[in-house]
Amino acid sequence: MEAFAEMTPVTPADQADRPPAAGRGPALRRILAALNWLRTAHPAVLFVLSLVCGLFLSSVVIVLTTSQVRSDWGYLFSYPGYTLSQTFDLLGSAYGALLKGSIADPAAFQRAFADPSSAIWTTAFTPISNTIVDAVPLVIAGVGLSLAYRSGAFNVGGQSQLIMGAVGASWVGFSFAGMPWLPHVLLALVAGAVGGAIAGLIPGVLRALTGASEVIVTIMLNYVAANFLTLLLTNSFFRIPGQGDNPVGRLTVGSATLGPIFASGLEVNSGLIVAVIMVIFVAVLLNRSKLGFEFQIAGASRAAAKVAGIRQAWVYIGAFALSGAIVGIAGGVQILGVTQQLQTGFGGDIGYLAILVAFVGANRPVGIALAGLLYGALESGGLTMQFNAGIDAQMTTVIQSLIVLFVTAPALVIGIFRLRQRGGLSA
Amino acid sequence: MDVSPAPTGTALAAVELRSVTKRYGTLVANDDISLTVRSGEIHVLVGENGAGKSTLMGILSGTVKPDEGQVMIRGEDVTGYSPRAAIVKGIGMVHQHFRLAGAFTVAQNIALGFEPRGRFGLLDSNASRVSARTVSDQFGLSLDPDAVVGDLPVGLQQRVEIVKTLMRDAHVLIFDEPTAVLTEEESAALFTILRKLREDGRAIIFITHKLREALALADTVSVLRRGKLVATLDPGQTTVAELGTLMVGRAVNSVSQEAVGLEAVSPEAGRPGPDDTGRPAQTDIPAALAVRDAALRPRTLHAVPLSGLNLNARPGEIVSVLGVDGNGQQEIFSLLTGIQRPDEGTISIDGRNLTGRNSGAFLAAGLGVVPADRHREGLVLPMSIARNLVLDRRHERRFLRLGGLLLNERALNAYARDMIAKYDIRAQRPDQPVASLSGGNQQKVVLARELERDIRVLVAAHPTRGLDVGSIEYVHRKLLELRAQDRAVIVVTSDLDEATALSDVIYVLYRGAFAGVVRPPFSRHELGILMGGT
Prior knowledge:
The complex is a heterodimer of chains A (about 425) and B (about 525). Chain A is mainly α and about 425 residues long. Chain A has helices at about 1-5, 10-15, 25-40, 45-65, 65-70, 80-100, 105-115, 120-150, 160-175, 180-210, 215-230, 270-290, 290-300, 300-305, 310-340, 350-360, 365-390, 395-405, 410-415. Chain A is globular, with a radius of gyration of 25 Å. Chain B is built from 18 helices and 22 strands. In chain B, the strands form five sheets. A six-stranded mixed sheet of chain B has the order 6-7-8-3-9-10, sandwiched between helices. Chain B has a six-stranded mixed sheet with strand order 16-19-20-13-21-22, with helices on both faces. In chain B, a hairpin with a 2-residue loop joins strand 14 and strand 15 (about 350-355). In chain B, helix 4 (about 125-140) packs across helix 5. The interface of A and B includes residues 288, 301, 311 and 423 of A.
């Protein structure tokens, strides 16, 4: 504030050659105002600072878990320079590898410019392609879950809806050989949506009719769905014969595959298009549609919804069905685009990570798309980090969790950086 | 006044604000305000909603940092201090919405935050009980330390808040609209307490809308209007009318004069039977909303059971359901609006039996609803003004496109701009969150929404609670306009002045049943007796 006051003498000279009506100050003042804005608790500022905090804490964990550097810290007082350089080397190689594995390796681009051939360009773009492949199911499932969260339904059953969606999509995907490509893919995705919707309807209907806690029911259904999948894979209808003890499902036929977008061998597939469509769909549904309006009234204030004649029971059922359907599409995209077949343990922890993605993205479709990319990058960069820096790929899970920790605790970040609360209500 | 004048001269001001200014964007919430409050003085601050009272109190209690000016406490410059520092410096705040833990006892609530410790650092609950009793007895607050706060009436809960601030040795006590939630007896008891605190040499800042109350209590009255301090007066030298004029910037008929626009609408207002519009006697007209022998069993722990309710609201009639809070107002409101189904009896609108249908069916049948708690029930605070204006009108084709799938943003915003102009809602943009409006303007959003619908009956619960004089007059005028348009209006209220000023008939609610149905001329005495249940 004092620095600001010292700047004011500049103003009159500057304003002399401006029409007095122009309300803007000089450029310097605008820059100061922009810097000032960075110190307010704007959501974007908060997000970036949460990221910084998460990465800082992760650095501490990396140092603590790397025995060589940990022993170097024994020399902190005798050779402080050595200790610090060892530490920064470690962190630099860890985060550098993470970036190389998830976005791009500058060296690969140098080679590609020096010797432009399709194969070398493909290598250069492989990391970002892998990131997108990992991000696609997270984004779709994330926007699906956010729909429930914005409606006041706490859907933690992403995993069950993902699995049921994958079962539906796979079923259609390995059947109906001979259908043309687009109709077959769409049919498979619809089947995925139906599978996910069924898994979502169970907690939704139970909540609406009996008041059963949707949190407990969805958590339990995650186990049920995983075991249901294992059960299906004992059945010869789903299971591919002749794989010994390894229960895997039948392969999706070519006409139902979400194939690669580029012919060059990059893995990024047309699931990306589905993800973009789903983000737009959910954004329109939430912000522009009557149904989304009703869902959000119920989500924001149950009492106001009652007075406005919105039936809470139908909101639960509808939000859960729609949310489940979209998460089911994520499962379908994963089957048709990546794994091509069902297997035990399908989906890994996509259904759970998507909850984090929804939170980090502040339950807003565009935010979720960005958060999904971030989490996809951490997923795909983890292995490179393990190879290049010798840090366990599990470390990415720690980073993912720490970021969520800070994102969901804005008061903590505001306190650490002493941000100002945004000026809010009058009087 | 029955107290000797406050000490003046050598004593330092307990609180002094010097040219305090606070801006939010383009809005100047506090504009160059200078104010002095001495120890042993009750300083009453009056102003409309949005006049900047809450910002000023925020600056005093440390939650708001002023952009310019100084805050002095006993001569010490404390500008921009934190809420915690404010407490240390002796500022105590009694909020309009109490900050109490309902499941805890009085003693626990009072100790909360600085609990006395016994051996091994464990809580010494006996010490907190003793100190709670000591402090409350010292000021004649008579509180039972073991009573569970959630079970206490509002007036006693407020005393717990007062004792909390006294325990922290506050020498400046700020009361934010303390009487808004109190009955008349409770208010009188509060005033006695405030005078005791004054005698004890504490400085008291008292924020209110009620001008009569301000004059009865104050040693000094200050008036805020649109962020500016427009006057600081000696209550002996001014009148309710002058204060009201200063507050709204124009002459008003305050509610206390019970004249609010009645003459303007119908000279014979409040008289049943034929009037100069040639209307037939109202008893011959079928009721727009009729309740027959309705009963409602309590659904929650503290709900009041309703029994044997019969009520008729005819077109062109304002019916008040009047009672002291906690006699079933909330329950009868939820019954009339279809939020709860009666266990016995029937409810019909325009002769259509709607018993057992949900609130959506009631709305569709032509019911307008102004809920008591506009924050929880009437509005969705984070949503825009435009969205809030159509909360229960979202089915109407004019606000939709693509066969009813999508909201028509352009129509919504255009409509919101119309409503902002028509209902004089003080807002910058239609897409501004309704949370950013002041209380009176929020209520205008609710009213605009309900009155613009094609309704047959309006049910309004405490429609003017927490509003300033200007807004109250506005709301009452709107209700009378509705009556003049041959709509039925049911006002559920605990405000005797409001009921007598507006109503054609008053149903007095006592313990979940109608103790009496009263027609004009109303006798405050008779109504008071019925409300008291004797």
